[in-house]
Amino acid sequence: MSDSVRAVKIRDCVVGGPELVVMAGPCAVESREQILGAAGVVAASGARFLRGGAFKVRTAPTAFQGLGWDGWALLREAADAHGLLTVSEILDEGQIETARRYVDFAQIGSRNMQNVPLLKALGRSRMPVLLKRGFGCTIDEWVHAAEYVLREGNESVVLCERGIRTFETATRFTLDVAAVPIAKARLGLPVVVDPSHAAGKRDWVECLTLSAVAAGADGLLIETHPDPAKALSDGPQAVVLSEFPALMEKTRRVAEAMGRTIPVGARVVAA
Amino acid sequence: MSDSVRAVKIRDCVVGGPELVVMAGPCAVESREQILGAAGVVAASGARFLRGGAFKVRTAPTAFQGLGWDGWALLREAADAHGLLTVSEILDEGQIETARRYVDFAQIGSRNMQNVPLLKALGRSRMPVLLKRGFGCTIDEWVHAAEYVLREGNESVVLCERGIRTFETATRFTLDVAAVPIAKARLGLPVVVDPSHAAGKRDWVECLTLSAVAAGADGLLIETHPDPAKALSDGPQAVVLSEFPALMEKTRRVAEAMGRTIPVGARVVAA
Amino acid sequence: MSDSVRAVKIRDCVVGGPELVVMAGPCAVESREQILGAAGVVAASGARFLRGGAFKVRTAPTAFQGLGWDGWALLREAADAHGLLTVSEILDEGQIETARRYVDFAQIGSRNMQNVPLLKALGRSRMPVLLKRGFGCTIDEWVHAAEYVLREGNESVVLCERGIRTFETATRFTLDVAAVPIAKARLGLPVVVDPSHAAGKRDWVECLTLSAVAAGADGLLIETHPDPAKALSDGPQAVVLSEFPALMEKTRRVAEAMGRTIPVGARVVAA
Amino acid sequence: MSDSVRAVKIRDCVVGGPELVVMAGPCAVESREQILGAAGVVAASGARFLRGGAFKVRTAPTAFQGLGWDGWALLREAADAHGLLTVSEILDEGQIETARRYVDFAQIGSRNMQNVPLLKALGRSRMPVLLKRGFGCTIDEWVHAAEYVLREGNESVVLCERGIRTFETATRFTLDVAAVPIAKARLGLPVVVDPSHAAGKRDWVECLTLSAVAAGADGLLIETHPDPAKALSDGPQAVVLSEFPALMEKTRRVAEAMGRTIPVGARVVAA
C-alpha cells in the first residue's frame, strides 16, 4: 500500500518507503545510563530512531514530569553514540527553538492532537512532525489536525495510531488497526503505530506490533526499558530491553511477508 | 448536594450556592448586532453570564476560527450593556493578559483539558477557570486536570460536563449526568453542564438541560443564537434565541423542585 | 412530551399518561420475607409495579440464577398482597404460558434485545412487553427490535433505557438520557428508565432517577433491597429499602415540576 | 502462541493447530448457483469451511431473514460438492436437531452471545460451537459465555472476535486484535477472527485479515460473494469472489511468517 504514500524524509531516513522504520526507547529519559543502554540495544536490533520523553504530559500533577532540557541532551547524546535519530514530544511553542538541536522528529502527543496553536507553530517550524491520534478522536478529526500543520506549509507529517478509548479494559486502549489504511487513503501521509500505549501491558505488545505491520504500518514506536519495574512512567507496558531483539526478529518476518524491510543493526557504532 | 461544594465567586456571582447560574449566548461572537441581541434576551431570562467564543478551536482548519480580539471586545460591550458577566475560551498562555480585560471566567475547552502548559498558566493567572471535560476523558482524568490548576494556588475552578464520545450517533456526544455528583464528590468543586454540545441538535437541548438540573448541576452553559441557520459555527445545536425564555421557564420549575433558584431577569438595563 | 406518546395500558395502570409509573423491588426474588417486605414499602411510596427476577441472566454461570417458577409465585403473592402489578424478565418462549399467571408486564432484558425468536414470541403472546435497550445497541437498533414485537400485532410495548457501555468506569453504564425523547419521537411508544443498572452503585441512583424524570421518562424501574449487603445479585446498586420512601419524595417533586404525578401510596392493603 | 491452546477437532479439521483454518462464503445463502459458485472458489483457495446463513438475525424486521431450512440444504450440498465443512448460525434450541444434518460447526451470533438458554442448549448438544463475541461485550463476559457451554460438558468451543462498538464510524466496528491472545490466555480455547463485520466495507477487509493472522488468530471467517452489489445482506463488506484467491495469497504469506499454514486448494473435487 505504501506506493500511494508521499514519503517523509527525516535526515537520512525515509518513512513511507520500503523500510519499516522502527522507533524505540523508554517512555521517559530517566538517566544517562538508562538511555545509553536502551540506545545500544535498539540500534543493534534495527531501530532508526531513539524515543524518550523529556517533557511528559502526565494525567496527575504529582507524577514524574520528565527531566526537561537535560533529558533532551541525554537523548541526543545516546542517539548520536549509536547512529540513531531522535523522536520526542514537544508540548509548547516555546520549546521549539531549543528542540531543533536535540529532536529530529517532533511528536505531538495524543492529548495535544487538537491543540491548534501547537499544530500551527510546528507547521511554521518546518520540523518533521509525528502526529499521534487523540485517544478520543475520530480518524476524520485526526486528518483535520494534520491539515492544520500542512496548511502552514510543512509537508513532513507522519501520523501515529496509538489506540482509542473503548469500553474494553483488558487493554489500556483499543488499537484501531483499520485506521492505518484509512488514514493513508485520506491524506496520503505515512502512518506508524505505537503498540505500547494501546497494550498498556507488555504481554500484549507483541500481538499489536505484528498486527500493525500486517495492517501496513510504515513504522513502529515502541517503549522498551532496561528495568521496567523501576521505570518512572509507563513501566507496565514497556518491553524488557533484553527481550527487544527477539521481538524485532518476529517483526522482521512479518515485515518481509508484507514486502517491507527492517535493517539489520549494523549501524551500532560504539558501546 | 451543593452544601458539600466549595462555592466559587466570580465578581458578584456565586457558582455552587443556591443559585443555578445560567451562562448563555452564541457559540462564536459573529457581529455586534448578534451578540447584543443575544445578551438582551439571555439577561432578561435570568442568565448571569454571556458566553461567546472569539478564538475557536475548530476541527477543520478551513472552518470559521472566530473574530479574535475584536470578538472579545464585542462580548464585553454586550455583557456590560445588560449587566452580564462574560465567559469565553482561552487557547494559549499568550492570550491571558489581554483576556483579563474582557473575560470574567476563563474557559478551558474540551480539546485542551490535558494541555498542561495551559492548565498551569491559568492556575498562575488566578483567573476563575471553567474546565470542560475532555470528550474522550474519564472523570478521574478530569479531576487530575483540575488539580493542575489548583496546585498553582488557583482555587477558583468550576468543572463543566459536556458529553463524552460513545457509539451512539443520534446525539453528538452522550451527556454523562452521573458525572455531576461524582465529580463534586471527588474534589468538592462546583459542576456545571453544557447541554448544547452533547445534544448536537437543538431538539434535544431541553431534555439535557432539565436532566442536568435534576442531576444537581450548579449551572448551565447553553448555546443560543438569533438565527441558527446562519450561524458560523454549531448552528444546529443552538437554541433559537426567541425560544430561550420558554426554555428558562421550564428550567426554573425543575430548579425550584431541586431547591435552587434562577433569578428573574430584572437585571435588564437597556436595549 | 407525553402527549405524542401512545399510552400502554397494563391492567389498571397506564404507562405514557400523566402518571409517572414507578416499578421497584429487588433484582432477584430471594425469599418470601424479602419480596413481601419490599412490596410493602414500595407500594406505600407510590410504586405501581413490583419488580423481581426469577430467571436471571448472569454474566457468569456460577452466579445465582434465580428461584425459577417459585420466584414468580412469590412475586405474585407479594404483589397481590399490596395491590401491585408485577414486572419480570422472560428468557425464553417456553416460559410464556406459565408467565401469564404470574407476570403482568414481560421484560425483555438488555442481553436479549436482539433475540429475534423471543421478540416474535412475545409479540404473538400479546403480553405487555417492557423492552430494555441493549447496552451495546444504538437507539436505531432498539427501535427496530421493538418493531419485531409490534409487527406480530402486539402494540403494548414500552421501551426502557438502562445505560450504554462507554469508556467511563465510574458508573457501571452511562445513562443516555437523550434517548428518552429520541426514542419517543421515533415510534411514539412510552419510555421508562432503569437508573439502577446504569449507576452500578447506589450513591448515584438518586441523580439518575431525578435526571430521568426531568428527561421526560414515563416511568422508572428501580432496584431496592431490604439488606443490599446480603443480596444474591446486584447488591451494590440497590437502594436500601428504608431509604426508598425518601427517594420517592424527591422524585415526586421533580415529577410535579414536569407536570407528572406519582400516586401517594394509599394503595397499601395490609402489612 | 498456539502451543498453549487446546485444539478443537471438527470432523477432519483441527482448529488451534498449525493450520490457519479459513472459513468463507456469503453472509446468507441466497440461491443454489450463488452458494455453489462461492464454494468452488473458496475451496480452491484453501478454505476448509463454507459459511452461509440460513436464519439471519437482522436489525430490522423488514430485512431479508434468510432461506431457512432450504438454505441449510443448499449450504450442505455446495460444501459436499467441494470437500468443505459447513459453519452456520443457530438461533434457537428448536433448530439444533435439524442442524446436525447440515451444519458441522454451530455459530452463536454476536447478538446471542449472552442468550443463556441457547448457550446451554448448544452445550448439551455437543455440536462444535463457534462463539462470536458480542459487539458490546468485554472479553471477560465473552469468556463467561463460553463457560456456559463448557459447563454442559461440551469442550468443542472456538471463540470468534468480530469487532466491538466504539465511537469510530469509519469502520462498522473496531476489530480488537489484542482480544486474540487475551482470550486464548484466559481459557486456552482457539480464537478465530471475522474481519468482514468489523470492516463493514470491503476496502478494509484485507488489512483486518492480515492483522488478525499476525495477532495469532487460529482461523478466519470471511464473507465473500460473487456479486456483492446484488447481495441480500451485508453486500458492502463482502470481498468480491473473484478477488478472494488474491486475498488468500497475501494471507498465506503472513501466516507462514507466523509459522502457520493454509492448505493449497487441492481439495477441489468437481464443478
CATH homologous superfamily placement of chain A: Aldolase class I
By DSSP, the count of extended strands of chain A is 11
How many domains of chain A? 1
In N-to-C order, the SSE pattern of chain A is EEEHEHEHEHEHEHEHHEEH
Structural class of chain A: alpha/beta
Largest interface, chains and sizes: A-D, 39 and 39 residues
From the structure provided, what is the oligomeric state, counting identical versus distinct chains?
Answer: homotetramer
CATH 2nd-level architecture of chain A = Alpha-Beta Barrel
Distance N to C terminus of chain A: 37 Å
CATH topology name of chain A: TIM Barrel
Going across the major beta sheet of chain A, what is the strand order? 3-4-5-6-7-8-9-10
Uncertain residue ranges of chain A: 267-271
